[in-house]
């Protein structure tokens, strides 16, 4: 069964380490995920530090067009959210019924 879900990098147990040398300040991966942790497609919103503040940018590879199509509820909800923050984005995804797959606990501890 495929579910609409997301991973929020900053809130994950490995987020700090991954973000410390990244060219962006945060990211949320959104997509169609299988129970076995596979994916039918995913895209990412990355927040970049620009001169006038932090700005979100949507990125998708061509094999994830299906995910964009299946997540039109989210894409359409963004039309009125100029300058959305990562936390506001998470709120929106949860409101739309997306599952939070963020891994907050280190499995090696």
Structural summary, described in words:
With 109 residues, this protein is an alpha+beta fold. It has one domain. Helix content is 25%, strand content 32%. The chain has a five-stranded mixed beta sheet with strand order 4-3-2-1-5. It is globular and about 40 Å long.
Give a topology summary.
Blueprint: E1 3-8, H1 15-19, E2 26-33, E3 39-50, E4 53-59, H2 65-70, H3 72-77, H4 86-95, E5 99-100
Parallel strand pairs: 1-5
Antiparallel strand pairs: 1-2, 2-3, 3-4
Keywords, separated by commas or semicolons:
25% helix, 109 residues, alpha+beta, 5-stranded mixed beta sheet, single chain
**Number of helical regions:** 4
Order of H and E elements:
EHEEEHHHE
Determine Rg (CA atoms, Å). 14 Å
Strand content of the residues, in percent? 25-35%
Strand order of the largest sheet: 4-3-2-1-5
Work out the helicity level.
10-25%
Count of the separate structural domains? 1
Shape: globular
Sketch the major β-sheet: 5 strands, mixed
Spatial separation of the terminal alpha carbons: 30 Å
Uncertain runs: none
Give a quick summary of the entry.
With 109 residues, the protein is an alpha+beta fold.
